[in-house]
Amino acid sequence: MSDNQSHLASDWRSEGDRVRCELCPHRCLLGDGQVGVCRVRRNMNGRLVAGGYGLVSSENVDPIEKKPLNRFYPGERIYSIGGWGCNFSCSFCQNWTISQQVGISREQGAGGGANGAGSEELGEGGNSPAEIIEHAIRSGGIGIAYTYNEPLISFEFVRDCAILAHEAGLKNVLVTNGYINSKPAEELLPLIDALNIDIKCIDDSFYVAHCGGHVRPVLDFAVQAVSAGCHVEITNLLIPGLNDNDSQVVALAEWIANNLGRKTPLHLSAYYPQFKLNVPATTLQQVQHAHELALQHLAHVYMGNV
Ligand code: SF4
């Protein structure tokens, strides 16, 4: 077990009597006892603590295509874990029970984990990286996928697991919103074999209105991941009337082709009403139309959730 309430975070500095977290573009400035936008990183007595270190909300052994990754060890399975919290606040979050809350019971969380740690609340201990590696090896999968909630806000835990996973010959996969600063990304990416990065829309106005963030850091991270030699696939959740018009789909596909490469897989995923947003679900016809548009620019476009 690890002590998840006192694990010192990386990437922060003192500013007077407060601390500045420099892990993600929010750059939260936190007074004593305050927690960041992500709900897990906290100023405790003038030190930034990686709250939730080792806490697992969900655990499953999934087909790798479910991440989704269609062109990275197809047909294999991967041990998949999630924690709590997120540095975005998407109104349409499909995993909001674990991303927008901290410390609820596992039964309420996405993925229906089964390792006995998910029902714990912050402060009750968590899994050590060595325990996670043991679970991953026992699962028989090719490695570990850090997924379900936003893994980048658990930077220290993902990094520590990823180091041990590589030593054990396991692959590391991140399923992420890509909202991280370039310096910590530079430290993490050499440990990561493959990523699915969620680009929610090519328009910054969409990120501001619906996610509580900006698109530019996400795009920069995707370029950084490709430059680091990682296998990268992109997901775009199509929400009718909000981010699925032809010009948005084409602009995203063109950006991917021009900046990540034409062979970068794009997953166009259907939205279902979740959390705070209640627009009608994406129809099969809408996904098919976007698929046709994107295929004019990219070699591998997949339809998801249909
Ligand atoms: S990781 Fe959390 S605490 Fe740090 S800047 Fe981002 S939202 Fe704020």
Task: Offer a concise description of the structure.
With 306 residues, the protein is an alpha/beta fold. It is built from eight helices and 13 strands.
Summarize the structure in words:
With 306 residues, the protein is α/β, with parallel strands linked by helices. It contains eight helices and 13 strands. It has helices at 96-99, 129-139, 155-167, 182-188, 204-210, 216-227, 246-259, 284-295, and strands at residues 12-15, 18-21, 29-30, 41-44, 47-50, 58-63, 77-82, 143-146, 171-176, 194-198, 231-238, 266-270, 301-304. The protein has an eight-stranded mixed sheet. Helix 7 crosses helix 8. It is globular and about 55 Å long. The structure holds iron/sulfur cluster. Iron/sulfur cluster (SF4) binds next to loops.
Number of strands: 13
Mean pLDDT, to the nearest integer, reads 90
Biggest sheet: strand arrangement: 6-7-8-9-10-11-12-13
Structural class: alpha/beta
The number of helices is: 8
Helical percent range?
A: 25-40%
End-to-end gap: 40 Å
Report the major sheet.
8 strands, mixed
Report the uncertain regions: 103-124
Query: Whole-number radius of gyration?
Result: 18 Å
Bound molecules: iron/sulfur cluster
- SSE order: EEEEEEEHHEHEHEHHEHEHE
Strand content: 15-25%
> Which outline best applies?
globular
